[in-house]
Fold each of these.
Amino acid sequence: MVKEEQEKKLSLKREDFGKDFKWGVSTAAYQIEGSHQADGKGPSIWDIFTAKRGKIYQAHNGNIACDFYNKYEEDLYLMKDLNIHNFRFSISWSRVIPAGVGVPNPEGIDFYNKLIDKCLALDIEPWVTLYHWDLPAALEQKGGWTNREIISWFKDYVTLCVQCFGDRVKNWMVLNEPLVFVGAGYFLGVHAPGKRGMKNFLPAIHHAALCQAEGARIIKQYYPLAKVGTTFSCSFIEPSRPIQKDIMAAQRIDALVNRLFIEPALGMGYPVEDLKFLKKMEKYQLPGDKALLQFDFDFIGVQNYTREIIKHSWFVPYIKARNIKAEKRKVPITAMKWEIYPDSIYQMLKKFNSYKKVRDIYVTENGAAFKDIIEDGRINDKRRTNYLKGYLKAVLQAKKEGMNVKGYFVWSFTDNFEWAEGFRPRFGLVHVDYQTQKRTIKASGKWYSNFLRNQVK
Ligand code: NOJ
């Protein structure tokens, strides 16, 4: 049977995923909270970066965003109404420690206490990401992720979070997509803090990888029974043509995109064989680092949206490879111009599941941006629903084949600030009118809610 037929045959019922499967939605502090200067919050690199000219689509910023800081209760009630009982959000470091190190901010801590308590009161399980890209600006002035001191700054921050919230939070994620924040922020310069080049990229990689494990150790030290994970962006990588040059190019991109941060955590070291430029990272490594990079995570968060088709290219420095844009391949795409390719998530679950030391896997992000049209107060976003169904079928296939996938979180609950793309791409199950902050449940949100009806948490 060909794959498409096979896929069609897999109908979608929540029960098929098992009663313990966790269903949720994902968000991140800077993308939803707003209130960027409220109650003693310090600036983050995203406050600084969005204020620079020409960095963000139409000079948008997260100063107000979805006003989640003020509307969290309303949003949590809506979440509960939609039968969603697992909520992934992140803590803003500069809200709880305004200068990044030193004196904590009681009002910032209070916000997360109230948020967590409200979740629990509504029977919503909090899943907390410690770092979703908003480094305190004061730390960037000292070099940010390029400065090895970040390990001690980060450890202090994690310690505070665990001391304050660890009695109620049972599921933690240390980092969100390290490759993206070091790649876009410290190599390409298209995300905060806007740094470029190998001299920034290489130390940032190593320090992020060290923090990933060090942060996890701290949580376990305080709460041995807590579930500690970290999350990775990943894309299914395929060569453009079945020729050696493209196959090798795809292998290099795969090492960069899918292996760079998980393999050192598993004790396998960095994928230096495939990425020769990583040899230069030795300069930033100290004796004993290989052991420090390792941590036996309870779970890995897999975040997948699309696949990439790769071609060899002499012109691209270091990696000698480039991707062929989805637009040029005449394939279905989202508003991010990412190819819609459900098999990608199946392939990624297979890949992460094939590491013997990987325990549980959660899809901590998956979703799609489309141009939403409001008609008579309704948003009939069929394409988003179809996207979610297609990818969920692929997740179910992976699960049926015995892969250890334990949950799925849609990106995102509401529309929000999509980094350099501003508010233009809308990923939400719930529409946000940024003028009025009105929330409107999209058809996809209603579909998810129906799908989850009567779920056991
Ligand atoms: C990855 C990131 O974690 C999240 O912040 C972003 O908005 C989504 N994926 C969509 O691009």
Note: Residues 194 and 291 are 31 Å apart (CA to CA).
Amino acid sequence: MASIFTRIVQGEIPSYKVAENERFYAFLDINPMAPGHTLVIPKQETDYLFDIADEDYQALMLFAKRVAEGIFKAIPCKRVGVAVLGMEVPHAHIHLVPLQTEADMDFRKEKVQLSREEFERIASAIAESIQ
Ligand code: 5GP
């Protein structure tokens, strides 16, 4: 069965898209740790990040770097944090989280609630900031 992220890539499930190319897709996390929390995924479904072939892995990381640069420009923050967990969704994904403090990267803390309009505004602002 296709992962929830494959279904997002295929447009079956809606998402707040931030960036896309032929191989990769970036969209806002629906339960963000901070406004602008973005997930970067390969369109080709692989469960575990470190099972991805070297060339695809390098290209994914470079794509994530471009997205992180866009987040940094669009969202006031000190750093963009990077994390990979994969405990919930078995489709490799990189978390990019705008950080004001170390606590913004605590996966156990209460998530930020955003309206649809806020998600849309944030996704557009990041998308426009990506070179
Ligand atoms: P992980 O697998 O890295 O432990 O966590 C999965 C992440 O995906 C969580 O941060 C969760 O909020 C996010 N997530 C799960 N389902 C969806 C979804 O349907 N849409 C979006 N945008 N994010 C999701």
Note: The CA atoms of residues 68 and 84 lie 14 Å apart.
